[in-house]
Amino acid sequence: MKHAKGILQRILQVIESAPLRMTRKRERLLAALVALDRPVSAAALRDKADLPASDLVTVYRTLETFEGIGIIQRIPLEDSGSLYELTEPNDHHHHFVCRECHRTERLDLCLGQELEKQAHTLGFTQVAHLMEVYGLCEDCQVAS
Amino acid sequence: MKHAKGILQRILQVIESAPLRMTRKRERLLAALVALDRPVSAAALRDKADLPASDLVTVYRTLETFEGIGIIQRIPLEDSGSLYELTEPNDHHHHFVCRECHRTERLDLCLGQELEKQAHTLGFTQVAHLMEVYGLCEDCQVAS
DNA sequence: AGCTTAATGAAAGCTACTTTCATAAAGAAT
DNA sequence: ATTCTTTATGAAAGTAGCTTTCATTAAGCT
Q1: Where on strand C do bases come within 7 A of a protein Cβ?
Q2: What's the pLDDT at B4?
């Protein structure tokens, strides 16, 4: 994992300054996210955190909470479902996603500024945008 | 509606040259799409085409078929669900979408070329991308 | 240790499709 | 026009991916 220690510290700071309780489940989910160090589905995260099947609801709630304080980013898949990624606060970016194995690569290219400007010209407020790139990674090309 | 006649002709050409049967349902759905002249949900399309509730499955199948021949583009919503838009063949573009009323505006700004290039550098093939901008349109700001 | 408020677990519910399979209707062949 | 083949449709059930409800538990402040 790349900068686990730094990230963790910054994330713990964010969590401490939020009106949040650090429960066992949340600790385990956070640890699993750090250990994985890549975007995962809710179910995969639950498995990595070694929680029982029934805890999927807690996983979703925790992801929602973490997204609320800005340390989780949701990555929509092409058809349905999402991946969730631990990010440093305010680290907006997009992804290349393999539609087979869900391997992701970071994409540092974004039209955010331009989009917001045009959106405001059209009278839109509270603007957000989605941008993800889907394809088949090398491994999955071979496999198929 | 903007160029209904021109669009319709080009679309009918595409349909004729595809191995497709022009059934009553498809005719009505196509007519509804032309009349609406904007992206709609599957349910809204069914209502506009004046089909019974049970025909939603036919709507989805027709949309899938039409998407296959390139005359329908799917616009994913921010959280879940999709809008479907009649387009001229090969008219790739993105949208501003009001997250309240689903009003959409066309967005002629796309990083497609650059994205594909980077994707191929990373070893990805069969690349596609999603980019939509969400916000509140003027009407919906007032309402809330 | 007690107290308040937030988090969890179990269960059911929900949205937006998708699949299955028997029936109907295009449209080509005769 | 009728038959035949193939595709489209309808009804019903199924599915994925969450979300809600509500009773119980446990943070963590006092």
Answers
A1: 6-12, 15-20, 25-27
A2: 55
